[in-house]
Amino acid sequence: MPQPPKQLDPSRSGRHWFGAELRHWRVLRGLSQAQLGARVHVSGDLIGKIEKAVRACSAELARALDEALGTGGVLTRALARATADADTSPADADTSPVRPFPGPARPTPDAILTEDPPPPAPLPGAETLRVPCRTAEGRIIFVTMPPSGSCPPLALVPPPVVPAAPSVRDFLAVDGHPAERLRDLRRTLVRCDNVLGAGHVYDTARDHLRLIGGLVRQGTGADRRTLLHVQAEYAELCGWLCQDSGDERTARFWTDRALEWSHTAGQREAVAYVMVRKAQLAADCGDPADTADLAEATRELAPPRSRFAVMGALSAAYAHALNREAAVCHRTFDSVLGMLDQVADDPPARRGNWLDSPHVQAQRAQALSLLGEHESASDGFDRALRTLPSTYRRDRGYILSQRALAHLRADEPERAALAGLQALPIASATGSGRTFRALAALDGLLPAGSAQPQVREYRTAFDASVLHEA
């Protein structure tokens, strides 16, 4: 009986990332390790070791693999990232600079990309946790710990209970077409994410994605294309959940899969939406060139007067802020608000319902902060918070953390600490890495030894929210 493929964690190192990419493209082309090795004149054993992150890949071999698999250079670019990010950290600690607050450890995405049936999902509570820890020198690091066992992760919407290898016909017999059922479940996961956080949702979304992968492999014709579209929607959700948890590497992995599957399904609007998400990820990583390029690609793909067109313009405005182009940034944001008014009366889109006035206000406030207009940014965050729906809990915490930084940069440490105190319990409850990253920065920037009680209270509360090195 063949062994299941080694589980890779693209978030751990560049070598794991490269192995996951190589495995994905090999399986996509329907090749065994031995067959691929023969095409590039190496042994199948070497291909297997590279996929398992046991052996490094040479630049010459990466180019040969790109040519043999028709990737368009994906592996050569992945190798450059792997070389720049060697996996040298010990298994039980991450001594890198401050990283975002994690939820439960990321299960690997490549299980759905194997030729064999995916292994069963781990039992609740089997995953380890990565938690923030303050070292003796005062730095924040993240350490890997076993679960407590007293409170297993919440399984919000378990996958449908079906036989081991369900087919589209199985669903049609009992519950209609699986695509609509799975989309309903995805909408529930999206709502739960903003209330409870990505850490409680990711495992369930990934399990659904495994199920969809099996259905896609069995599907034909229109059924297969429909399921590919659903598969892309779930991959995009997994990308967002990883992005909010602060795991940009795995977020890119899933978002790239979403783009590929949207193309394969022939869904032009879905492609436009995933391009928006890639632009948002590039913006989160502070890359103005990629943000601008992806925003322009979105606007070319999006139907006129659509939500997708507004999203592309919004990403373009933020790219101008990253480039410190104040005048054109303000003009673009003004045009975004005008475009949003034109689509406000349209029936709700299947995707992008988060695009509303509070979201645009929050994005503009962040852009103002990047441009150094911190007082105006604080006012913008206040306006966004006043109109934000109460169910957007995770988003409220993130906006509060950004408002705290804006107050601090406007030389208002007391107001910054108060906003931080409001955001900290939300960050801890939802596991939002983006929020915790801002709050960790706030902790480091607030004046040490301040006599202001709010500042002392925030620093004490933040310190209590992380473990301490023994």
Give a quick rundown of the structure.
The protein is mainly α and 470 residues long. It contains 20 helices and four strands. The chain has four domains: 75 residues, 434 Repressor (Amino-terminal Domain) (Orthogonal Bundle), CATH 1.10.260; 177 residues, no CATH class; 84 residues; 114 residues, Serine Threonine Protein Phosphatase 5, Tetratricopeptide repeat, CATH 1.25.40.
Layout of helices and strands, plus pairs?
Elements: H1 14-28, H2 33-40, H3 44-51, H4 59-69, H5 74-84, E1 93-94, E2 129-134, E3 140-145, H6 168-175, H7 178-196, H8 202-218, H9 221-244, H10 248-265, H11 268-284, H12 288-301, H13 307-322, H14 326-343, H15 357-370, H16 374-387, H17 393-409, H18 413-430, H19 433-445, H20 453-464, E4 467-468
Parallel strand pairs: 2-4
Antiparallel strand pairs: 1-3, 2-3
Helix pairs in contact: 1-5, 2-3, 4-5, 7-9, 8-9, 9-10, 9-11, 10-11, 11-12, 11-13, 12-13, 13-14, 13-15, 14-15, 15-16, 16-17, 17-18, 17-19, 18-19, 18-20
